[in-house]
Design goal:
PDXDC1-like_2nd; GrpII_AminoAcid_Decarb; Aspartate Aminotransferase, domain 1; signal; 15 helices; decarboxylase; lyase
């Protein structure tokens, strides 16, 4: 028998502290070392070391070669090792191991992360995956009765969903912290996991301890989102089932809240036209949802392997209002469908109206020919008759009223020179789904009831106090004005001539003031004029 060993853990043989499991590898018959990725050496071959007691047997087995050309293939690796030296080789491998231990210590502090490496404190590779905080996922306080087959199916679906979320998490970490070199691996027993192997990537990517800390920060930000998405997936599913016009599509490979499809009511028998109408409504619905003031991601799903004519909803947070989201999707879909039907009906009405107008105009032309007579249609004779006896014909036209859906004569338009407005067009169907939002609050977000009530009570109390102060100020100003007006009048009453007396209340009304002296002069002038006329 022959024992062959290979792997990144063999690099720790250069360190002073080696675990017993790795140290046992030295008793193998052969081992393969990939020194290029470990030390960051480009274009160097891997090395296979083997144990041999008799060189002749090794040569006969083809393990060695006597040709100089094949021996020169190891020259770049030998020169690189000579340049680094023993201390340089140990330093690079030790630094990569320290990065792994740094990440491992931080992962132990996270509740939803589980590592899956044996002898992890001595391993230069860290393999971990996201797991739920609790085993069940779905609505709190809701009990489901399931059989043994359903339990097995549920476990399989949860495993697939967990693999999908871990694959998404690994891709996110690779995009956000590319210098870390994390990648996604799939293990037979554990499923999809995230691997951090600085021995294979640190020397090439230049991974530093700051990059490890960035990975931990990204995990701390993504874990609450993953937990919230898992908890709200079942609630979203139940809400869609209870909403008319929506169908829930189970896609375990989608890392998000879920997939929903709007089912429109169409009696079209042609499957191609029905499919085209379905695509039109779905694209319009997706456009409307993207225009909303929300931080949710709406899409048509992955490029390959996704369901057609569906709305895919991405990751969510724990403050998501699922009923409002489902209601908005259903209402927006109904609005688009009603608008589409309204447009189709209007198109048909316009087409029928144009045909009716053409028939009426053709009939009017025939009546005009009969009324004018045949002689007027002859070129020369018609001109002479029109000159001797002009024929006055009324201008006849047709107008189509979209609101009433009828063809009307244009005689009223030419008579009054104003186009009749007709009836009021029917209102465009819209969805009534307005909801009171706090300033700066995104749509589909539940506001904190305690904070909101406190803020409302504080605001209302402040507003009430401001109203009281304003009312008191206005009352005081009114009183001061009234007292000023009262004190400015020197006499309780004013006499006009010798008989007319104006009460005190009339003086304080908002009316133009009367000059008493001018009234007396006018009365005297009128008396003098009357006396002169009597003498005449």
């Amino acid at each position: 028998w022959w024992l062959h060993v290979e792997g990144v853990n063999l690099a720790t043989l250069t360190l002073g502290y080696v675990s017993s499991s790795v140290l046992a590898a030295t008793k193998c018959d052969s081992m393969t070392l990939t020194l290029g990725p470990w030390l960051g050496l480009p274009a160097v071959p891997a090395v296979t070391l083997y144990r041999h007691e008799d060189p002749s047997l090794s040569l006969a087995a083809g393990l060695t070669s006597s040709q100089p050309v094949q021996k020169l293939r190891a020259l770049p690796l030998w020169l690189s090792l000579q340049y680094l030296g023993h201390d340089g080789i140990v330093e690079r491998i030790k630094y990569a191991s320290q990065l792994s231990q740094r990440l491992l210590e931080n992962l132990k502090k996270l509740n939803s992360i589980r590592t899956t490496v044996e002898d992890e404190f001595n391993s230069p590779v860290v393999v971990f995956r996201f797991t739920q905080d609790h085993l069940k996922s779905g609505l709190d306080g809701v009990q489901y009765q399931t059989t043994a087959a359903q339990d097995s199916s549920k476990d399989s679906s949860e495993r697939e969903i967990s693999d999908t979320l871990n694959r998404w998490l690994g891709e996110q970490l690779g995009q956000l912290v590319p210098a870390s070199g994390v990648d996604v691996v799939e293990l037979e027993d554990e499923g999809v996991c995230i691997r951090f192997s600085p021995l294979m990537t640190a020397a090439v990517l230049g991974t530093k301890s700051e990059n490890v800390d960035q990975v931990v920060e990204c995990l701390q930000g993504k874990i609450p989102i993953l937990n919230s998405t898992l908890q709200l997936r079942e609630e979203f599913k139940q809400e869609v089932y209870q909403t008319a016009g929506l169908t829930h599509i189970e896609d375990l490979n989608w890392p998000g809240l879920g997939v929903v499809r709007y089912e429109f009511t169409n009696e079209e028998s042609d499957p191609e036209k029905k499919q085209a109408e379905m695509e039109k409504i779905t694209s319009g619905l997706l456009k409307k949802l993207k225009e909303l003031d929300s931080d949710l991601m709406f899409s048509t799903g992955p490029e390959f392997g996704g369901e057609k004519n569906c709305i895919y909803i991405g990751m969510v947070t724990d403050d998501l209002d699922v009923p409002e989201l489902v209601e908005t999707i259903a209402a927006t879909g109904r609005e688009i469908e009603e608008n589409s039907k309204l447009l189709e009906n209007m198109t048909e009405v316009v087409r029928q109206g144009i045909m009716e107008a053409e028939r009426q105009l053709l009939k009017a032309t025939e009546e005009k020919l009969v009324e004018e007579g045949i002689l007027r249609q002859i070129p020369v004779v018609g001109s002479v008759l029109n000159w001797l006896s002009p024929f006055h014909s009324t201008v006849k036209g047709r107008t189509f009223n979209l609101a009433a859906g009828s063809v009307e004569s244009t005689s009223n338009t030419y008579t009054s020179k104003v186009q009749a407005s007709g009836g009021t067009p029917p209102p465009t169907p819209t969805a009534s789904r307005t909801k009171n939002k706090l300033p700066g609050q995104k749509q589909f977000r539940r506001s904190s009831r305690t904070n909101a009530s406190d803020a409302v009570s504080d605001t209302s109390s402040v507003s009430h106090m401001e109203e009281i102060e304003v009312s008191q100020t206005s009352t005081t100003a009114t009183r001061l004005e009234f007292e000023t007006e009262v004190h400015t009048s020197p006499e309780p009453s004013t006499q006009l001539g010798s008989e007319l007396e104006v009460p005190e209340q009339v003086q304080h009304e908002e009316s133009p003031e009367i000059n008493v002296q001018e009234v007396d002069q006018i009365s005297a002038a009128e008396a003098e004029d009357s006396s002169k006329e009597s003498l005449r």
